[in-house]
Every structure is written in structure tokens, then in C-alpha cells.
Amino acid sequence: MTETVVTPPSGRTVRKAAPGEARTPRRSGRRRVALPYLLLLPALLLELLVHLVPMLMGITMSFRELTQFYIRNWSEAPWTAFDNYSVAIDFDAPVGQALLKSFLTTCLFTVLSVGLCWLLGTAAAVLLQENFRGRAFLRTLFLVPYALPVYAAVITWAFMFQRDNGVINHVLHDQLGIGDSPAFWLIGDNSFWALLIVSVWKGWPFAFLTVMAGLQNIPRDMYEAAALDGAGVWKQIRHITLPSLRSVNQVLVLVLFLWTFNDFNTPFVLFGKAAPEAADLISLHIYQSSFQTWNFGTGSAMSVLLLLFLLVVTGVYLLLTTRGRKTSDV
Fold first, then answer.
1. How many CA atoms lie within 13 A of 221 on its CB side?
2. Among candidate residues 199, 186, 196, the one with its CA nearest the CA of residue 259
3. What pLDDT, on the 0 to 100 scale, is given for residue 232?
4. Which residues lie across from 15 on neighbouring strands?
5. Burial class of 200 by CB neighbour count within 10 A (0 to 12, 13 to 18, 19+)
6. Is the sign of the CA dihedral 239, 240, 243, 246 positive or negative?
7. pLDDT number for residue 46
8. What is the mean pLDDT of the chain?
9. How many angstroms separate the CA atoms of 42 and 329, rounded?
């Protein structure tokens, strides 16, 4: 490979690269651009196999009369079009009424759980921003529920909620004298509150960790300037902390909503295969409709309806939050 030197009339020497040299940087640049996609390819293929393929199979099953008679060869189940969806949303029939009640229970449970998780996590993160002795220990202690395996944590709570031998009734009834008799926490109306307590206990550390990370990006000069202007703690939180955490809270609330609304492990481990009526979340309700009655077609239709609901809520939420962010920026 040769190099050509051209001397123009101005007297400056210009180096003209050989044809092969001009293509080398371009090729290396293309390789650098393609490398991340090649590294992501195994994860994308695994995501395709684990999530997308079963989802497509579930959508197909929702259009078939798939019962216990066709489990062995589910592809031979009769095609029913939208009959399974009609059964699921027929709120005058027992199946539709049960699904609607489970849906409303899940909505109430999700609102309370997400709200309490966000409130406790934000309060703990704000309080632990100041330097004091033992702050690192408290931060580590608050993250323990998030680090524990879900099954181990929920099983522990199930033992604590036992009526005769549980520590909850021992403290409330035996030690504090609350109530005429020990309460039933895992059956009846109290099961909803027991499920809510467990959900908040294992969910608020994630909100605490997320908000605490967001607080690190707020300059301390803003708080010092506000303090010099006479702003108290509450005014600083209202006018500095919360507006600065808006983008963090938008993502946090969405993630908590999706996790809580789809939560299956917590009620399943806490109550077993059949949850009490007061704590009949829609995820466990769909499981019962599918694996207890062996009507997988109707259960698949319920799952698709749940997926569509979550997609619509997520899209509307992102649209509103994005529009609100652009308005505030203007």
C-alpha cells in the first residue's frame, strides 16, 4: 500500500490516503455499532422463548374450548371464536360476576399497596438523607425485606398470622388486650388486610431504594438556599424534593402498579390455591378458573383481558405523565 503526497499551489503538503486505508475506520465503526446488538441477541432470544411464545399460545388457547378433555392434544380443541370472552365479561352470569368482584378487589388492593409503599419509601428516604450515627445500619435494615426471597418471607408471615400460635395475635390480643378474642387473619374479611400488610412490607423497600437514589441527584445548594430564605422542612420537601423526584416517581409508581396488580406469589403462598373471598386477587382468580375448574379456554381469555387492561392503563399513564412533563418544562 502506497501513500501519495500532493503539493498544492499554496505550498502546503496534503497527504492522500490509499483506497484501502479510507475504508478501515468505517469498518471498525460498524463493528462497534453492531457489537451491542450481538451481545443482546441471546437475551432477546431467551425473552422470545420465555415470554412471547407462551403469550401467543395463551392468546390462541383463549379462542378454543380447551377443557380437561383436550389437554393432551390442545390443538384439537374446538374453535369457539369470542365465546370465552363473552363468558368472562358477562357480569350477569356467575363467572363474570366473580371476575368483576375479583377485579375490583385487586384495584382497591393495588391502590392501597402502591400508595403506602410510595409513602413509606419516600418518607424513609427523605429522613435518611441527613448524616447521623447509625444511618448506614438503618439503610441496610430497611432493605432486608426486599432482599429476602418472596416465598421465605410470605411463609414467615403466614406463621405470624396464625390465630392461636401466631405472634400477631399474641401481641395484639395477649399483650395489648385488643379484641375480645384472637382474630382470624387468613380467612374472612381480615385476610384482605393481612395480604395488604405483607405486600406493603415487601414492596416499600424498593420504593425507598429508588427514591434514595433519586435524592442523590438533587444539589444540596438548593436546600441551603431555601433554608437561607426561611423555608422550613415541609416547604423544602414540597417545593424542592417532590418536584425534583417527579421523573423518578413516575417510573416508580408504574413499576409498583404492574408488580402489585400482577402479584401471584404473595396470595398463593399466603392462602394456598383458594384465597378467601375478601382477598381474591385477579391473578389467583385466573389460576383457579384455569387449574381448578380445568377450563383453560376461559382462563386464557381472562388473562388476555387482564393483559389488555394493563396495556391500556400503562399507555394512558405514560401519555399523561409525558404530557405533564412537557407542560411543566414549558
1. 1
2. 199
3. 79
4. 5
5. buried
6. negative
7. 87
8. 85
9. 39
The answer to whether 61 and 297 are in contact (CB under 8 A) is: yes
Amino acid at 216: Q
- Please tell me the distance from the alpha carbon of residue 37 to that of residue 44, in angstroms, as a whole number: 10
Strands (E), 134-282: none
**pLDDT at position 329:** 56
Grid cell digits, residue 152:
421465605
Residue 66, classified by CB atoms within 10 Å of its CB into exposed (0-12), middle (13-18) or buried (19+), is: buried
For residue 178, the SS3 value is coil
Rg (CA), the chain: 29
Show the low-confidence residues of the chain (pLDDT under 50): 1, 22
At position 48, the amino acid (one-letter code) is L
**What's the full length of the chain, in residues?**
330
**Cell 424534593 sits on residue:** 241
